[in-house]
Batch of 2 targets.
Target 1
Amino acid sequence: MSSNIFITGTSKGLGSGFADYYLGKEDKVYGLSRSSADQFGSEDNYQHIQADVSDFDQIKVKVKELLKDVEYLQLVILNAGILGEIKGITDASIDEMKEVMDINLWANKVIIDTLYEMKIKVNQIVVISSGASINGNKGWSGYSISKAAVNMLVKLYAVEYPETHYTALAPGLIDTGMQDYLCDVVDHEAFPSMTRLKEARGTDNMPTPKEAAKRIGDILPALLMTPNGSYEDVRKL
C-alpha cells in the first residue's frame, strides 16, 4: 500500500534522492523546494510546489496549497537547509547567522505548525540535523548553532505532540554540491575539519545523494523504535 510522503528541498541533493527513493516504492511524494524539480516532471505520483523557505508567510501558504487534499502523512522529511560561509565565530555576523537560522530552524517550525493547523495526522517527522550540531568544529558557526537548535526543537515537539514520532537525524557525509565549496574553496589549514571531508570524497564514506537516500530510507522505519525526539546519527544505527 502506498504512503503519502512530504519532503522539503527536493530539487537537488539529498532531498532529490529521497524523492527518487520513495517514488521508486510507488509512494505519493509531495515536494517543496526553492527551485523547480524538473527531474520528476513525468512522475504521476510526484506533486511539487516552489517556495522560498526563508519567507515564512509564503511557506505557510504554499504548504497549505500543496497539501490541501491530504489528511494523513506517513512520513515528513524536513531536509531543506543551507550551510552558510565557513568562517571563525567572531567573523560571522549576526545577520549571516540569522539567515542560516531562519532556513535551517525556523522554516521547519513554520512547516510543522502549519501541518498541525491543517489538522493533518502525521505518523513520523524526521528533521535533517548534522554531526556539526554536536562536534563544535572551528568555522561551522551559524550552521552548527542552527543544527543544535534543530535537535532541541525536535525534542520539544516530541514532548508536546507524542502522537507523532520525531527524530533529528544526522545523515552522515554526502557528496552534494556543498562539498565543492567545503573541499575545494575553504582554507583547510585555517579550518582543519575540512581535510577529513576531502579525504572521504570519492569513497564509500561519502555516498552520492541517491545512495545516501536509499541507505537512510531503508532505516527510517527503525527510527520509530528509538526514543521520541532523540538525535540519531545514521553512522551509529
Note: DSSP finds eight helices and seven strands in the chain.
Target 2
Amino acid sequence: MHRTLINIGPRQIAVFCLALTAFELLTYMASDLLMPAMLSVTAELHADARHVPHAFNLYLLGGVCLQWLLGPLSDRWGRRRLLLIGCALFGAACAAAFFVNSIELFNLLRLLQGMGLGFVVTVSYPALQEVFCEADAVRLMALLGNVALLSPLLGPLLGVVLLQWLSWRELFLGLGLMTALVWLGLYLYMPETVGVIRRDGQRSMPTALSWRLTARRYRALLGNRRFLCASLSLGLMSLPLIAWIGLAPLLLIRLQGLSPVEYGLWQLPVFSAVIVGNLILDRLLPTHSLPQLIQLALWPFCLGLLALAGCTLLGASTVSVVASLALYAVGLGMSNAAVYRLALFSSDDSKGLVSALTGMISIAVMGLGGSLIAVIGGGAHLGLFALCAAASGLMCLPLLYGLLPGTPADSASDQ
C-alpha cells in the first residue's frame, strides 16, 4: 500500500500513477516507435535522408526549450495545471503530424512533441515526490526509469510490427488519441500538490515568480563547478547511445541493407545492456558509495568505447559495433543514476530548479552532439560513426574526475 502525504484515496492514487506512467511512455514512444518509419517519412515528404537524425535531435532539443521556465511556473501555478497544458500540447503536436506535407513542418512538430519530455521531467517528477513519502516516491521513480529504458528496447520492434498495418501518419494520430485519454485521466485524478496542507502538517506554498531572482539562481548554479561537471558528464556519457538511436536507421537500413525487422532486433543487445547495468547498480547500491559505483562503472564504460574506437582501425562491422556499444551500455546503466544524483545534490537550491537546469544541459549536449556527429558524416560510414561516438563518450572522463573524492572539485565543494 502506498503511503501518501496528501489526502487522496487508493483509486485516485492508482489512476494518477498510471496516467503519469502512460504520459512518460508516450513521450518516449513518440520517438522510438517512429524511428523505423523515418526513411519512409523523408521519402514521402521528398526530403533528404539527412533529416532522419535531425528530426530525432530536434525532438531531444524540444525537451530543453521549456525546462528553465517550467520549474518556476509550476512552483507558482501548481503542478496539475502545468502538466495538463504539457499533455495537451504533446497530444496536439502528435495528431497534427497526420496532416503534414513538408519536412520543415514535420521537424517543427518534432520540436513541439519533444517539449513533452520537459513537462515529464520538470513537472511530473516533483509532483510524485510531493504526493508520496520518500520510500514510495523512490520506488515509483525507479518504475518510471524502467519505462524510459523499455521504450528504446521495444519501441523500434513494435514500430516495425505496427507499420505492417498502419502508415506513419496513422501512428502519429494514434499517439495523439492515446494522449487525449491520458489527459482525461490526469484531469480527473491528478491532485494538486502546491498550496495544500499535507498529512504531515506541512504546506507546499506557491512561490512568487521573480524573473530576476530566478536568473540569479540559475547563474549561481552555472557557477557551481561540481554541478557543471555532473551535468555535462550526463550528456557526454549518453551521447554515443543517443547518436546510435538517431543514426541507426541510416547505418543499418540504408547503408547495410538490413530490413526494418533486422534493424529492430539489432537494438535489443544495446538497450538490454543498459537494463543489465541498472540491475547491477541496484545490487551494488547498498554496499557502495556513489563515487565507488561510478569508478566500477567506468571499467565496462571505457572498455566498450575503446573497443568501439578499435572498430575503426580493424574494420567496423555491425556485429563489432553493436557488441562494443553493448559493453559501453552496461557501464552507462551502472553510472547514469549515480551521476544524476550527484548533480541534483551538488547545490542546496530547490530540486525542481536544479533538475530543470541539469536536464537542459545534459539534453542540449546530447542533441547538439548528435547533430554534429550527423553533420560530419556519422550516418554515412559505420567506422566514422564508431570513432565519433567513442571520442564523444570518452570526453566525459576529465569531468567525472572532478566528481570523485580527493579531486580539486570535490575538495572545493566540501569547503
Note: Residues 221-415 form a domain with the Growth Hormone; Chain: A; fold (CATH 1.20.1250.20).
